Amino acid sequence: MTETVPLDPVADARDEGRPAPDGLRYAQCWEDADVLVEGLDVQPGDTCLSIASAGDNALALLTQDPARVVAVDTSAAQLACLALRVAAYRRLEHGELLELIGSRPSTRRAALYDRCRTALNEGAHRFWDAHPAWVERGIGAVGRFERYFRVFRRWVLPWIHSDEAVRRLLAGGAPDERRRFYEEHWDHWRWRAAFRVFFSRAVMSALGREPDFFEHVEGPIADRLLDRARYALTALDPADNPYLQWILTGRHRSARPRALRREHFETIRARLDRLTWVHASLEDYLERQDANTIDRFNLSDVFEYVAEPDYHRMLGQLARVGRPGGRLAYWNLFVPRSRPASMADRLVPRPERAEALHARDRAFFYGNFVLEEVAA
Predict the structure, then answer these.
(1) Can you tell me whether residue 95 is helix, strand or coil?
(2) pLDDT of residue 211
(3) How many separate helices (H) and strands (E) can be counted in the chain?
(4) FRET partner for 175 with CA separation of 20 to 30 A, picked from 16, 109, 232, 257?
(5) Mean pLDDT over residues 265-280, rounded?
(6) Long-range contact list for 8-17, CB < 8 A, 24+ apart?
């Protein structure tokens, strides 16, 4: 049975005390879906619970043949993103989907949206009808976080590096070549100075993420992000990094996130009826669920924004709802979160596996990746 709730983005934004456009924080998922899928190890027939965000990673879970994926989000604007993606998989072909998202240039996004519109519920089409300029720009480009990166691309990056330098970086190459290019051509004083300013807590709070998202963050953040960027630009291959490519170019040039790859398009389209979404907080949703009913949990970085006692309480709910052997996956950005010793009998951490996957994580700004299993 579908458990969707009618979307009302205006009421949702009012509840948050923000104008409706700011209700859309993320127009894409900024966690590496390949890391997620491999970490969760979804088995055929599993029931999965996912933070919805923009919907990409909930859709990516369908590539693993689960019986059901439930996407949960407190934001109706975020659920409108997921709803439009589902409609696009139903009504468009793969190349057209990429155009609508913004992965490829397009002059016909309004027409593509019109083909999807009749597959949307009332709340979702009201949301997107109210933002035709967002559709024209590409629906993956219009969240607060993506607009932040657009400011960086347009006003900061040209002062740091030429278009040719960006192309050379994104061409990748052998590890030694990448490291040498970074050290000799990319990592100069303008890069470090501009990076530290633009990705500081003050600028990020003003342009990229709401200030209250930093409530539990301690210490400066820019140098931590600069170290993670250095790793992504040298140890990992930029030619295979869709997240980096979008940040620097506003497109997916030679790589795409899992849900947008051609080889997964028909599989996802065939399994859309297994996906439902719910307008609720994670905590409220868990309270309504029976014990031992969910196998896999994509928790994004949701614990970044809650106080430690609330995090522990939510972990307890997850352990109650999860089936024995079920698996939780989540990211830490700046706030360290991992299972407390008091829950050793309920959740089992898998740090070696998590660290190995984090070393390959192309969404490079996260401090670490956490895997935990529900105790048998």
Answers:
(1) helix
(2) 55
(3) 20, 7
(4) 257
(5) 97
(6) 8/76, 8/123, 9/76, 9/77, 9/80, 9/123, 9/126, 9/127, 9/130, 11/76, 12/74, 12/75, 12/76, 12/77, 12/279, 13/77, 16/75
